[in-house]
Structures are given as structure tokens and as C-alpha cells.
Specification:
The protein has 17 helices and 14 strands. By secondary structure, the chain is an alpha/beta fold. A hairpin with a 6-residue loop joins strand 12 and strand 13. Helix 5 packs antiparallel against helix 12 and helix 10 runs antiparallel to helix 17. It is elongated, with a radius of gyration of 32 Å.
């Protein structure tokens, strides 16, 4: 497997050395280590790294946030911020650059590993999204090709704006015969008053460069239509402009379709109604989500699962301990308590993850909501760890309460991983960031799916109109 090439931007030499060592131990290739934004830009142009780990506070004229914005606009390379000062104001500024993650100093190798893996995954998803957008662009070119191949009006004007030629297609578009149109001033015949200034600029251009414009026109029967014009200045042998040759296409129906599509898109940005039936499974490939969840659980040492808002599982459990998976959840009361816990931990909280003891045995659990346009659609839950203060007495009492074998429960409890609250809190913060990323992706996936559907309908409508 090809190594991920990573650029380090860090102005503290010791931290940079430690970070380089951590990355190498994780199997990554360190492209370069620089300490200023200017040097970072130069190295990116030379080395083209796959990923950048950027300290927010660095030496030089540009800080890490300013440098990351240049990287995003010029190179599109994923950036992970590293900082020891995770204050709200700095985070809000950093959000503008759309970073792919954060790591807090001192950087823990486990946190670094999972953040890099998540950044790479999100970058891949973004790449797929770009491919969808490119497909839409190709679709638009296809629509343009249909328009260009239909009969168009061909009209020539002199420098006094008088019509000097007028083909049969122009007659069909505007309703005037050639005898009626030739010799007439275009502004009197087919250009509405409010479009005069725009059209005059096209006619009065001095250079021999072709141009395009879209404007409203009027027809013989008093209708207002929208036309697309392809304009070529007519030059004499001395290079003097003597008029304008134009090809026009009536795109009134196309504009109506476009406006309808725009209205659809605008409606999609409004809050979802209560009647909308949006499900997590409709917005993501569950195989990809399962891999992401499995990798997160393996990298952090916690159990993980994604559930419906009521606690019912969507994904398969990752790294579940024997106590929870094979004993507590196998009892009716224990399983019900687990569902209640899962629903509680994933409740919507825009401030951060929900962290508390679970209802089934008091283990440390946490959760974050996954939303789409403000609507809660799923919970991402982690936990099944304990701290040093917990003992087996409580779990033994709970075993009697739910009807489980006390000895089995006590033995399985001692197998549960022990983790400090500070470490679990850090992992929970990472979970919250990833859940927010999934929420953003869910909304983008919904918009793309609906937009593609509307574009297909628009193409079909246009094709039927052309036929």
C-alpha cells in the first residue's frame, strides 16, 4: 500500500521532531518539515503532499489559518490543524478554511492516527462528490449541444443598428418576415427598452472577438422571450468594424426549466418539514460507514455503534465488550436499558458530545447526534470503558436486577478496558467532530441526489420540447 505523504508545518523544533517520528512509526512518509507559511507553499508546489499537518500559530507573516486558506484555494490538499490553544474564537476562524480535523498538543499517537485516517476518508468522499459535480457539468454540456444543433436565427446588423439580413429561422422566432425586418432598427423592432444599454454595448465593441450574451427580446405579437446570442463583429479589409453578425436561439423554455430547478434547489436549503422521510441509510453507503466505525473503534480502543434516534442499531457493533454484547444485551431488561441509553447519548447537542454513565452497568459512554439540515437522523455512540473508581459490586447488583448470572457478569466486568476520563473525553470530542462531518456530508448527499434528479427531469423536458 502506498504511503501517505505528509507535510509538517510546525515552528517548534522539538514538537516537529516528535511529530515526524510519530508519523513514521504510523507508516507515513514525511515529505518535509517547515516552520513558516511561505515555506509551506513552496514545498507544496515542489512535493505535492497528500496531507498537511499545520500548526495554527507559526512564524512568519502568515499564521496557520491564513496559510491553510491559500492551500485550500490553490491546491485543494487536506489540512489537519495542530494547536495547544483550542479556544472558540480561533476555532471559528479556522472553520473558514474547512479543515479535515484537529489534533491537540501534546499530540497523542492514537489521536493522530485516527485523525489522519478520518481526514483521508473524508478527502476520498469529497473526491467522489467532485466526480458527481463533473458529471453534472458534462450533462450541462450535453444540453448545450442540443441547443446549438437546433435551427437558429441568423441576423446581420450595420453600425446604425439596422437589420441587413434575416433568415427564415429568425422569422419563426420573432414573427417578422424578412421584408418586414430588413432595414428596420433592431431597437425599434425586437429589443425592449430596458435591454437597450446592454445590447448597445455588444454592438459597439471595437475588437474582433466573438461574444455571447443573453437578453430579453420582443416578438411581433407582443410576447417577451429570452434569447441567447452568439455575436461576431464584421470587419472590412482594413480591420474596421462595419457591423455585427449574430446567431440567436430562443431559450425561453430552457430558462423556465432552469428557474424551476433553481426554485427546487432553494426549497432544499430550507428546514425539512416534519413529513419528510429521510433516513441515515438513504444518505450513506453503509459498508463505507461500517468501515469508518470499525477503524475508529480499533484506533481509539472504545466500542462504537450508530443507531436510530430511538436507539435501534443501524450498523453492526464495533469492538463491543463481552459484558455488554454477550450478557447484558441478551437479557430483556438489560437490552431495553441499552436502547434507552443509546437514545439518550445521541440526543442533539450542538455544543459537544454527551458523556455520562450508561444505564446498563454504569460504564462510561458518549454520543453525538448526526443531523441533516437540523433534523436528527441518527446517533453515533462510543464507550464500554470504565475508570479506576468503578468496582464489581455495582455490576453484581445490576446482574441480579436484570436476571443475569452474577459470576459471569463479574468476570466480564473485569475484562472491560480501563481508561482515564481525560482520555475518554478527548476521544468523545473527536467523535463529535466526525459526527458533524457526517451531518454535513448527509446534507450534501441529499442535495446532490435531488439536484441530479431535477437535472434529469430538466433534460427530459428539454429533449421533448426540441422534438
Amino acid at each position: 500500500m502506498e504511503k501517505t505523504k505528509i507535510l509538517i508545518v510546525e515552528d517548534e523544533a522539538i514538537i516537529a521532531m516528535e511529530l515526524e517520528s510519530q508519523l513514521q512509526s504510523l507508516g507515513h512518509q514525511v515529505a518535509s518539515v517547515v516552520d513558516t507559511g511561505k515555506d509551506a507553499i513552496q514545498k507544496i508546489e515542489l512535493d505535492r503532499p497528500d496531507l498537511i499537518i499545520m500548526d495554527i500559530r507559526i512564524k512568519g507573516e502568515m499564521n496557520g489559518i491564513e496559510t491553510a486558506e491559500i492551500v485550500k484555494n490553490r491546491f485543494g490538499i487536506p489540512v489537519i490543524f495542530s494547536t495547544a490553544y483550542l479556544d472558540e474564537k480561533r476555532i471559528e476562524r479556522a472553520k473558514i478554511t474547512m479543515p479535515f480535523g484537529y489534533v491537540l498538543k501534546p499530540i497523542q499517537e492514537r489521536d493522530l492516527k485516527v485523525t489522519i485516517e478520518m481526514a483521508i476518508y473524508i478527502a476520498e468522499v469529497d473526491k467522489k462528490r467532485q466526480q458527481v459535480e463533473n458529471a453534472l457539468i458534462k450533462s450541462e454540456f450535453k444540453l448545450a449541444a442540443h441547443i446549438k444543433n437546433t435551427p437558429m436565427g441568423v441576423i446581420e446588423f450595420d453600425n446604425e443598428f439596422k437589420i441587413i439580413s434575416w433568415n427564415p429561422s429568425a422569422e419563426k422566432i420573432f414573427g417578422y418576415s424578412a421584408e418586414e425586418a430588413i432595414g428596420e432598427n433592431t431597437f425599434d423592432l425586437i429589443v425592449p427598452d430596458y435591454e437597450h444599454d446592454k445590447v448597445k454595448k455588444v454592438h459597439q465593441q471595437e475588437n474582433p472577438i466573438a461574444s455571447e450574451n443573453i437578453n430579453d427580446n420582443k416578438t411581433k405579437d407582443g410576447r417577451f422571450i429570452t434569447c441567447k446570442w452568439f455575436n461576431t463583429p464584421m470587419m472590412d479589409i482594413n480591420g474596421k468594424n462595419v457591423g455585427l453578425s449574430a446567431v440567436c436561439q430562443d431559450i425561453t423554455e430552457e430558462k423556465k426549466v432552469e428557474q424551476a430547478s433553481q426554485k427546487k434547489l432553494i426549497s432544499l436549503t430550507q428546514p425539512l418539514g416534519k413529513t419528510q422521510n429521510i433516513h441515515f441509510e438513504d444518505l450513506f453507503n453503509l459498508n463505507d460507514i461500517q468501515k469508518l466505525q470499525d477503524q475508529f473503534a480499533k484506533a481509539t480502543g472504545v466500542a462504537s455503534i450508530i443507531t436510530q434516534t430511538n436507539g435501534e442499531p443501524i450498523t453492526k457493533p464495533s469492538n463491543f465488550c463481552r459484558l455488554c454484547n454477550d450478557i447484558i444485551r441478551k437479557t430483556e431488561k438489560g437490552n431495553l436499558n441499552c436502547y434507552k441509553s443509546d437514545a439518550t447519548f445521541g440526543r442533539y447537542n450542538p455544543q459537544g458530545p454527551t458523556i455520562q454513565k450508561c444505564l446498563s452497568g454504569g460504564l462510561c459512554d458518549a454520543g453525538a447526534a448526526i443531523t441533516v439540515d437540523g433534523r436528527h437522523i441518527a446517533n453515533w455512540l462510543i464507550g464500554q470503558v470504565r475508570d479506576e473508581s468503578q468496582n464489581s459490586d455495582q455490576i453484581t447488583n445490576y446482574a441480579r436486577e436484570i436476571g443475569a448470572d452474577e459470576k459471569q457478569v463479574a468476570t466480564a466486568f473485569n475484562e472491560v478496558p480501563v481508561m482515564s476520563f481525560q482520555q475518554f473525553e478527548s476521544i468523545s470530542a473527536m467523535l463529535f467532530t466526525l459526527a458533524n462531518q457526517l451531518s454535513t456530508m448527509a446534507y450534501q448527499n441529499m442535495l446532490q441526489a435531488r439536484y441530479i434528479d431535477e437535472q434529469k427531469k430538466a433534460e427530459l423536458t428539454k429533449e421533448n420540447y426540441i422534438k
